[in-house]
Amino acid sequence: MKKVIVTTTINPVTEAIEKFESLPDWELIVIGDKKTPKDYYLKKGFYIAPDEQEKYDKELSDAIGWNCIQRRSFGLLWAHNMGADIVAVIDDDNIPYDDWGQDLMVGKDVETNYINTDLPAFDPIGATNESKLWHRGYPLQLISKRNYSKSERKIVHVDVQADFWNGDPDIDAICRMEHAPECDFNPVHFPIASNKMSPFNSQNTFLNCNVLKDYFLFPHIGRMDDIWASYYVQAKGFNVVYGKASVYQERNIHDLVKDMKQEYLGYENNLNLVKDLVVNPERIISYLPGRSVRAFELYKRHFKDA
Fold first, then answer.
1. pLDDT for 101 beyond 90
2. Is the pLDDT score of 119 beyond 90?
3. Beta bridge partner(s), residue 248
4. Per-residue b/e over 12-45, b at no fewer than 16 CB within 10 Å?
5. Cα distances (angstroms) measured from residue 161 to each of 121, 201, 235
6. Whole-Å CA distances, 245 to 18, 59, 142, 164, 264
């Protein structure tokens, strides 16, 4: 089984990258950007410089643009071309624990803490010991209505394994400004799944190779890039299961007001989006700017034979 880790960065090699690169049985791909240090160097991983990306697909490169985290979509394509069976998408500020990637559920039938909800979407963070928080991309209108009383043990086939993160977790800017959390998620709550779609991110997530053709980090929509990708692939029929925290996030410096502005598109549209995607996954197009739709079309060209 070929396992590939994908990320992008504008930073020098971080502690997290060094640890990911040293993992046995995994290959690391780092996608460069215009702001990435010119002397960026990996000992045994693959660093894909901007000019290599343009040689690979100039149209897609232009459609995505530069100095944005959505460049990591090139890493997904690189992993696909390498014949990866499982692709882990990570951030360079998420330091992996010693057992990271050893408890893989992808491709397996797993017994989960399965939450049934009558709401249009499910928030996985609320099902943990940090129930006052919510996941980035969860519709704000539903936060006060969350109810986790209808739970059961249920077997789920795992297409996507979204592992959690101790430290500063992936919550939205409003939640972070209000709570400024330092989290230690209790493993007893995991694995978690639900009967409704839910947000997952691209910072500590394992994907079955079959998901890649539909998983695209939509550019030009701010911090909804991976969130809307997550909703889309679930609407296409792929299952997500949330795993225990397998990294500690020492979060890179963020301007929370800027983050909030980049999340506003989601605050305004997430609830309607999840409702629409249940009817037809391709309705996502009506929420995207034209250049984002064009980028997705160019990305999908690479999977015509998949």
1. yes
2. yes
3. 95, 166
4. ebbebbebbbebeebbbbbbbbeebeeebeeeeb
5. 18, 10, 16
6. 19, 37, 24, 4, 27
Tell me which residue of 16, 69, 60, 12 sits closest to 38, measured CA to CA: 12
Helix (H) or strand (E) holding 155: strand 151-157
> Residue for token digits 């980035």?
136
The token pair that represents 218 in the structure block: 């939509």
Q: Indicate yes or no: pTM above 0.90.
A: yes
What gap in Å lies between CA 72 and CA 270, rounded to an integer? Answer: 23
Q: Evaluate whether 11 touches 91 at the Cβ level (below 8 Å).
A: no
Domain spans in the chain, listed from the N-terminal domain onward: 3-303
DSSP, res 102? S
Return d(Cα 145, Cα 117) in angstroms, integer. 10
Q: Where are the alpha helices (DSSP H) in 49-157?
A: 50-56, 58-64, 73-81
Q: Which distant-in-sequence residues (6+ apart) come within 8 Å of 116 by Cβ?
A: 150, 151, 152, 194, 195
Tell me the residue type at 146: R
User: How far, in Å, CA of 265 to CA of 270, rounded?
Assistant: 8
In angstroms, the CA 297 to CA 300 distance is 5
Q: How is residue 62 written in tokens?
A: 């232009």
Give the span between the Cα atoms of 299 and 289, in whole angstroms: 16
Annotation: CATH topology of 3-303 = Spore Coat Polysaccharide Biosynthesis Protein SpsA; Chain A (3.90.550)
